[in-house]
Design a protein that fits this description.
The protein has 19 helices and 14 strands. It is α/β, with parallel strands linked by helices.
C-alpha cells in the first residue's frame, strides 16, 4: 500500500522514545506527527485527523487514558494503540476495553511494532480502496457522461436527477436499441443514495426461460435435479442496491407474476423454498418494446406494467436529437485517441454531412461503432468519407443512406408542382401509416419530433 497516504500520531512525553518511534515509522513511508503531552496530543489529533494514534498511557497534563476516552467519545471508530510500561499492562488491557485496538510494551521490538501498525491499518486501506472505486464509478457514471445538448435529451437529464434523488422509486426506461438505456440505469444508480451498494444486472432475453426464475430468486438445495446446494438469486445479491432488468418486455408471463409480487411486497421466495424473504432494493427495468401494445396482445401483465411504469423515462432516438451527433463524434474520437494512442483530430465536412444525413437505425451504439471503424481506417489526423461504411456514405459518393427514398424517386411533372402540397400530403400519409403516432411518423420522414410538429402546425394539423 502507499504508506504516504496514512498519518500516524505519536504521543509520548519521553523525547528520545518519541523521536525513535517517529524515525522507525517514517522510514516505512508513513507521515508522522508528534505530541509531547496529552493536551498537545488532542490538539494534533483535531488538527491532523491521523489514521492511527500511538498514545503513551502515562503523560503529563492529560494521561493517555484520558486522551483515549475523549477520542472515543468524538470518534468511536478511531484507531488507537496504547504504549505501556511492563507495570501498566492491566491499564493497557483496560484501554482496549475502552476502544483501543492494541497495546505495545516498552521496550518494544521495532519489527513487531511495524507489523501491528500494518495489521491495524489494513481495514483503513481497504476502506480507502473501496471509497476510491466508488468515486471512480460515480465519476464514470456521472450525468455528464451522457453526451448531448438537444432539448429532448435535456428533458431526460431532468428526470434522471429527480429519480436519482428518490432511491426507492421504480423506473421504466424505454427506447430503441442503442439509445443508451443501460447507461442511464447505471447513472441513476451511481448518483443515488444506493451507490455504495451493488447494482445487479440481468438480461431477461438472454437467459433461458426455464433458468430465469432460479437466476432471479435463487433456489434451495434439492429443489430440482442438479440443485446440489442452496443458491442466492440475483435479487438477494442486489439487496440494498439496484436490480436492473434489461429487456423486461421479453419476460415470460408466469415469471411476471413473481416480479409483481416483489414490487408490491418487497419479498421473494426461492425456488423450492417455503419462507418469504424481505429485500430492500430499487428496480429499474428497460425495454425496446412497446409494453402497452404487449399488454393489449396479452403478452405482458397490465398490473405489472402499471407497477413498472411509476416513473417512465423515454430515451429519444439519435435522429430526434438535433445537434447531438457532432458532439458524440467528438466524444468518441477523444476516447479512442486516449485508448489507442492515435491522434485523429478532425472529421471532413463531407464525412460530417454523411453522418448528419444518416438515419442511424442503431442509434448511439451504431454511431460509436462507425466512428471506431473510421478511427482505425483513417490514415492521418482526419476522417474522410472513404473511411465511413457504405450504408453511411449512401452506397456511393453523394448518395443517400440505404433504404431512404430520395427526390429522384418522384417524377416532376412538366407543368411543375406545389411543393407545399407535396409536403402536406407526405405528412398526412406518414401520420396515417403510424395511426397518428408523431414519433414514428417523424422517423418515417427522417425528421425529429419537434421538426414534425413544426410542419404540422404550419399546415394547421395540430389542435
Amino acid at each position: 500500500m502507499d504508506r504516504s497516504k496514512y498519518t500516524i500520531l505519536v504521543a509520548d512525553d519521553e523525547e528520545l522514545l518519541r523521536w525513535s518511534i517517529k524515525e522507525i515509522v517514517s522510514r516505512k513511508g508513513y507521515r508522522v506527527v508528534v505530541a509531547a503531552n496529552g493536551r498537545e496530543a488532542l490538539e494534533v489529533y483535531h488538527r491532523d485527523h491521523p489514521d492511527l494514534s500511538l498514545l503513551d498511557i502515562q503523560m503529563p497534563e492529560l494521561t493517555g487514558m484520558e486522551v483515549l476516552k475523549q477520542i472515543m467519545a468524538e470518534e468511536p471508530q478511531a484507531l488507537v494503540v496504547m504504549i505501556s510500561a511492563y507495570g501498566q499492562v492491566e491499564r493497557a488491557v483496560a484501554a482496549c476495553r475502552l476502544g483501543a485496538q492494541d497495546f505495545v510494551c516498552k521496550p518494544f521490538d521495532n519489527d513487531d511494532l511495524l507489523r501491528r501498525i500494518e495489521r491495524i491499518l489494513e481495514p483503513v486501506r481497504l476502506r480507502h480502496q473501496v471509497e476510491g472505486l466508488l468515486a471512480d464509478q460515480r465519476q464514470r457514471y456521472a450525468i455528464d457522461q451522457i453526451v448531448g445538448q438537444s432539448e429532448s435529451l435535456r428533458e431526460v437529464f431532468t428526470l434522471i436527477r429527480k429519480v436519482a434523488a428518490t432511491p426507492n422509486t421504480t423506473v421504466l426506461i424505454t427506447g430503441e436499441s442503442g439509445t443508451g438505456k443501460d447507461l442511464v440505469a447505471k447513472v441513476i444508480h451511481h448518483q443515488s443514495a444506493r451507490a455504495e451498494q451493488p447494482m445487479v444486472e440481468i438480461n431477461c432475453a438472454a437467459i433461458p426461460e426455464h433458468l430465469l426464475e432460479s437466476e432471479l430468486f435463487g433456489h434451495e438445495k434439492g429443489s430440482f435435479t442438479g440443485a446440489g446446494e442452496r443458491k442466492l438469486g440475483l435479487v438477494e445479491r442486489a439487496n440494498g442496491g439496484t436490480l436492473f432488468l434489461d429487456e423486461v418486455g421479453d419476460m415470460a408471463l408466469d415469471l411476471q407474476a413473481k416480479l409483481l409480487r416483489l414490487l408490491e411486497n418487497r419479498t421473494i421466495r426461492r425456488v423450492g423454498g417455503v419462507d418469504d424473504l424481505g429485500v430492500d432494493l430499487r428496480v429499474i427495468a428497460a425495454t425496446n418494446r412497446d409494453l402497452s401494445k404487449r399488454v393489449e396482445e396479452g403478452a405482458f401483465r397490465a398490473d405489472l406494467y402499471y407497477r413498472l411504469n411509476v416513473l417512465p423515462i423515454r430515451l429519444p432516438a439519435l435522429r430526434e436529437r438535433h445537434g447531438d451527433a457532432p458532439l458524440l463524434v467528438r466524444f468518441f474520437l477523444d476516447r479512442l485517441n486516449r485508448e489507442m494512442g492515435k491522434q485523429v483530430r478532425t472529421i471532413g465536412e463531407d464525412a460530417l454531412a454523411c453522418l448528419s444525413a444518416y438515419a442511424w437505425p442503431g442509434n448511439v451504439r451504431e454511431l460509436k461503432n462507425v466512428i471506431e471503424r473510421a478511427h482505425i481506417l483513417a490514415d492521418g489526423e482526419r476522417i474522410e468519407v472513404s473511411d465511413l461504411p457504405a450504408e453511411v456514405r449512401g452506397g456511393g459518393a453523394g448518395g443517400a443512406p440505404a433504404g431512404v427514398a430520395t427526390a429522384t424517386a418522384f417524377g416532376l411533372p412538366e407543368q411543375g408542382i406545389d411543393l407545399e402540397e407535396v409536403e402536406r400530403r407526405l405528412l398526412t400519409d406518414a401520420l396515417a401509416r403510424t395511426q397518428g403516432n408523431q414519433t414514428q411518423a417523424a422517423a418515417l420522414l427522417r425528421l425529429g419530433r419537434d421538426a414534425l410538429r413544426y410542419r404540422m402546425k404550419k399546415f394547421g394539423m395540430l389542435e
